[in-house]
Amino acid sequence: MAALVLPDLDVDPRTLGDGEAALTAFLRGLPGVDRVGNERRAAQLATRSLKQDTKRALIDLAIRTVDLTTLEGADTPARVRSLCARALRPDPADAEVPPVAAVCVYPDLVATAAEAVAGSSVRVAAVATAFPSGRASRTVKLTDTREAVAAGADEIDMVIDRGAFLSGRYGAVADEIRAVKEVCGDAHLKVILETGELATYDNVRRASWLALIAGADTIKTSTGKVSPAATHPVALVMLQAVRDFHLMTGEPRGVKVAGGIRTTKDALRHLVLVNETVGADWLTPDRYRIGASGLLTDLLLQRQKLRTGVYGSADRVTLD
Known about the structure:
Elements: H1 20-28, H2 35-46, H3 52-65, E1 66-69, H4 77-88, E2 102-105, H5 110-117, E3 123-128, H6 138-150, E4 155-159, H7 162-166, H8 170-184, E5 188-192, H9 201-214, E6 218-220, H10 232-249, E7 254-258, H11 264-277, E8 288-292, H12 295-308
Parallel strand pairs: 1-2, 1-8, 2-3, 3-4, 4-5, 5-6, 6-7, 7-8
């Protein structure tokens, strides 16, 4: 699909966060999303048939891109250690199953997770900035982030202030993202748009560009607490933003889809969207993630089916 015709501004988009007027002009000058065309395109890509060998490879890729997540008030250190064990060895009976990309936990459990995955490729992600509502002072949000990084978080998943965004205070949202990015240090910053609250594809496009301009390493659909979340049309709009930002600046940024992805079929459809929109270079855990808690079980069962011809029951794989 062709890139967008972007606003003709004589300025590097990465500097637009320094000025409210320029940032607002850029975001409001973005072309509107053709709702019918966007949904048709997403639906067409979702119906692509896959050969068995391709499906096998994509299932392993999907496993490698999973952020295995537990974000419940009843989470305990024991539960997190169990989650980490599963992240490292998703199928104890099959050593060829790759580890997942990361475990995602609340900040107070980061140290537990970091100890459990130490020395492995599995990263520790922490939700921060008053997740999931984002309703807290900037001081609280920055402290939340700083403490998670100090405890060993490799990645921070922050939420934007949707109220500020929806009321047109784009500069305030950008400033907050930049402030969080600064205290992240070397930690990777994933910015959650909470697309289910943004209401329109145009808002999803604006929020995607705003986050990218402000320095997000990855833009993420949802907290998983609001529905709808990672729909194919929403993911398509976000992938287009990342593609066009890369074309405009030369900087590759990532996308994370989270919320409602529970089946292998859906996960593979999302991977097809990635390949067809931004290309194969994004089919890597460094540039693409799937946030999920229950998805891994189905991926393992479908993997077993391709190998044995039999779809097993969930009690044949390790659960969280």
